[in-house]
Amino acid sequence: MRNPLVLTGDVHRSWANDLKADYANPSSATIGTELVCTSISSTGNGSGSTTVPNAAANPHLKFYSDRRGYVRTTISRSQVRADFRAVNTVTEHGAAASTVRSFVILDGQPGLQAG
Length: 115
What we know:
This protein is mainly β. The protein contains no helices and 8 strands. The chain has one domain. It has a 4-stranded mixed β-sheet with strand order 1-3-2-4, with no helix packed on it. Strands 5-6-7-8 form a 4-stranded antiparallel β-sheet, with no helix packed on it.
């Protein structure tokens, strides 16, 4: 994969972002991708919101989820697939995980594509 891919976390929420060359210019080139991974077992269930906070001021933010879970990635030579998985509750033992949203990052094409 030739485009930058950054995995970050520890904010107890999930995000998927296009990395921009210049954040002051929303039409600047997309140069990579950031996947922010939540924790699956931290205290609190989250609100379940998927509304991107301050979306008008942050057009590079493509996904947000306030649920606990994880990001499952499948990596090949031509792409990275990211499935954002979440549980409705961390206080219920055995709660099922489901895919909230999926993206594909294609080799040579920086940024997120619908998966």
